[in-house]
Design goal:
Its EC number is 3.5.2.7. Its cofactor is Zn(2+); Fe(3+). Residues 74-415 form the Amidohydrolase-related domain. Pathway: Amino-acid degradation; L-histidine degradation into L-glutamate; N-formimidoyl-L-glutamate from L-histidine: step 3/3. Helix 13 (338-349) packs across helix 14. This protein is α/β, with parallel strands linked by helices. It has 16 helices and 18 strands. Strand 10, helix 7 and strand 11 form a beta-alpha-beta unit. It has helices at 51-58, 93-100, 105-110, 115-124, 127-143, 159-175, 198-215, 233-245, 262-269, 282-291, 299-304, 312-317, 338-349, 353-359, 362-367, 393-398, and strands at 4-6, 15-18, 31-34, 36-41, 44-50, 66-68, 74-77, 79-81, 146-152, 179-187, 221-226, 249-254, 273-276, 294-297, 322-324, 385-388, 405-410, 413-416. Residues 83, 85, 253, 327, 329 line the site of fe (iii) ion (FE).
Length: 417
């Protein structure tokens, strides 16, 4: 494969945002290179620097390289979305109409809609229908500059249907340019058939589903919707500990609707991330900081449910590493636009533009245990790079509801041009 290089020969205003060497820290060592270049060989970033530096270093080989001209544009790491419910069938615009008339998300779910409605359509869909519907969303993620997504099961709620979702996610990973990292979320809701005996459903998740998912190596993470009326912190703990025993790293949907001890539980079980956190207690936030639990914040969900977003500023100031995500799902956040979420991170959560870029790249990569290979433009990392057609990164965040994605390089190949 030919080496790939950005704009090596033209001096211009292209920029490379490097949010690298961040590890799990929020305090930005963000570096922007003006007139920058990246040299890629096969799937890997081989050199990063100014045009001048790379011109000197690679002069004898420039003729053999394929050049991507990023003149006047902004180059960032491929965006990473660490929390999606990508694989589902059906749509819930009817609930959107109900919410506009005053119904709440939980009221709709408790009346058999919400997650239960999508569970029904997802169970009924054929494997092919599920794949096609999910692929359409993944295509859209890519067109918005996203090169890796996490995808949860949780609309099957039986062993058979949870496996079906995870197998579709696996096939998408194998066939689509976007990498798909899988999370088992059998405990997304108590299915209606177990509504009078939720502990029996917890037992099935623990004794039947988790062992099978682990045996088939269909997921790396194990997530639970810990919320009043869904799973209690006690039940969530049982499920997350059971996953750990089978090699699944805990994640948790925590404190979305009310303070419920989810952030505290995340710290206690050593979760890699706690997600949502709109109502997380100060004590929970402190415990997350102490244990290095990443806060995956989803301001699009608050926007769409017309509630107040999580306090990202407070979490960052408390020393919690913050990542951002779309929470792409049919009920509380039907979007793939991570750039819009970044805009909300600034407007609704008190984060700086540099912090939201960090949160949607390197910190997001760490939230799915990929910080060593993606999330920054660094020598040795995978060549996952997005070029936005804006002259500086501020404009990427400042415009909202616009898609500035121009070119996407995934694994060293141009996949959007
Ligand atoms: O993260 N909160 C629970 N789960 C999803 C919503 C799923 C749905 O409504 O279909 C979320 O917001
Ligand atoms: Fe979610």
């Amino acid at each position: 494969m030919k080496p790939l290089i950005f704009s090596l020969l033209k001096k211009c205003t292209k920029k490379i945002v490097l949010s690298s060497k961040m590890k799990l820290r929020h305090n930005i060592t963000e570096r922007t290179i003006f007139y920058g270049s990246v040299w890629i060989e096969d799937r890997t970033i081989v050199a990063v620097g100014t045009d001048e530096e790379l011109f000197k270093q690679f002069q004898p080989r420039i003729a053999e390289a394929e050049t991507v001209d990023a003149t006047g544009k902004t180059v960032t790491p491929g965006l990473v979305d660490p929390h999606t419910h990508l694989v589902y069938a059906g749509s819930r615009e009817n609930e959107f109409a109900m919410r506009l008339n005053g119904a709440t998300y939980m009221e709709i779910m408790n009346a058999g809609g919400g997650i239960h409605a999508t569970t029904k359509t997802t169970r009924e869909a054929t494997d092919e229908e599920l794949f096609t519907a999910s692929k359409k969303r993944l295509d859209q993620f890519l067109l918005h500059g996203v090169t890796t997504v996490e995808a949860k099961s949780g609309y099957g709620l039986t062993l058979e249907h949870e496996l079906k979702q995870l197998i579709v996610a696996k096939k998408l990973h194998e066939t689509h340019p976007v990498d798909v990292v899988r999370t088992f979320m059998g405990a997304h809701a108590v299915p209606t058939e177990f509504k009078d005996n939720p502990d029996e459903f917890v037992r099935i998740v623990v004794e039947k589903m988790i062992p099978k998912v682990s045996e088939l190596a269909l997921a790396e993470f194990n997530d639970v919707f810990c919320e009043r009326g869904v799973f209690t912190p006690e039940q969530a703990k049982v499920i997350l500990e059971a996953g750990k025993a089978y090699g699944l790293t805990p994640k948790i949907h925590a404190d979305e609707i009310e303070p419920y001890g989810g952030a505290e539980l995340a710290a206690e079980v050593g979760a890699i991330s706690a997600d949502h956190l709109l109502c997380a207690s100060d004590e929970g936030i402190q415990k997350m900081a102490e244990k290095g639990v990443i806060a995956v914040l989803l301001p699009g969900t608050a926007f769409f449910l017309m509630t107040k977003a999580a306090n990202g500023r407070k979490m960052i100031d408390a020393g919690v590493p913050v990542a951002l995500s779309t929470d792409c799902n049919p009920g509380s956040s039907p979007t793939v636009s991570l750039p819009f979420i970044m805009n909300l991170g600034c407007l609704h959560m008190g984060m700086t533009p540099e912090e939201v870029i960090t949160a949607a790249t390197i910190n997001a990569a760490h939230a799915i245990r990929r910080g060593h290979e993606i999330g920054s433009i660094e020598v040795g990392k995978k060549a996952d790079i997005t070029i936005f057609n804006v002259p500086n990164y501020m404009q990427l965040i400042y415009h909202y509801g616009m898609n500035h994605t121009d070119t996407v390089i995934k694994n060293g190949r141009i996949v959007v041009a």
